[in-house]
């Protein structure tokens, strides 16, 4: 006979979705919140104390784990998205299941240190260089799944269809290891993957240039049958829009709409260069938008119409994408500040709305509808931010949401709890002893 594992946390200050409440006790049984009690001025006996401001765990809705190896390297000199892509391909060429596991484990540990409790991994490096499948055709995906488990966070593996180098063009040399040959073969391979306690399996269309139009519906149908999340890079570059119009006489958004890709479980990543009709198509279908501001500005992609998209009905989430930095608070702040620069007006989102994009709405985009809130029945995923650092000291605790979004950084995360388990305690990872060293070794292995 087994006994349920119980734990009670006392949160010095807790953000409960729209306001900050002092003195909150959260009772956890077998990884889920079973009670939330407020108005407790001091910790009850036997509780574990979390000093600072506790938020729901943060969701990183868009990640390419191996891009972390590019940090610093691709900031040398100038160039474009397309020259950056050549450097990225060279790194992808050197990945093996073992080196990818080591890198992803360190990257996901870095995410945990930043308060991230779930990641959406947009995964397209499927096969060996040259395109030959591994003995286990999902060896690369399994490496990511295991890496997340060892780093202590949840993962939605967005297994990605990537079949062509452009409209009507076969994969180039670098892209052969991304391709399954057809959408049917992609579906057959990833159908073997099944959800686990820390894992959700989703689907992704790399982009309209990488999946032929006649095969888009196959991917969409696979996701619909499983009620799984479906993500797609959308209109990140004007060159993609121009090529799509040349090939199909319409925008990428219209192409996706015409082939049944849009919908409430679909998320467009970036959604940067859109027409008014595109925005209406996304909003009317309640297709989500994942903004990745630190990557979009690093690659000089542009500023997407996030405010207009949300107003039209597209839920917003946030991702660190290429991992120029891993800091969901910075992504939230950047979405607001980028919009201020674009419009020269302030206050497009409240701090609470930005935190919801980084937590509840991000989790929903990844298929974790039971995470991202501090309430009874939710998964016990919590992130605690210090309110006494050089960045956060001074403001009143009731302004904790504003302090978190507009002043704090990932360096201020003190505790990360996933399913009631302390993954980060007092700023140190409890499962990966030396995360900086793990990152350095994993990146060096690829460089060599």
TrEMBL record:
The keyword Secreted does not apply. One of its GO terms (molecular function) is hydrolase activity, acting on carbon-nitrogen (but not peptide) bonds. InterPro entries: Amidohydro-rel (IPR006680), HutF (IPR010252), Metal-dep_hydrolase_composite (IPR011059), Metal_Hydrolase (IPR032466), MTA/SAH_deaminase (IPR050287). This is Formimidoylglutamate deiminase. It comes from the Bacteria. Residues 55-422 form the Amidohydrolase-related domain. Pfam families: Amidohydro_1. Keywords: Hydrolase. NCBIfam families: hutF (TIGR02022), PRK09229.1-2 (NF006681).
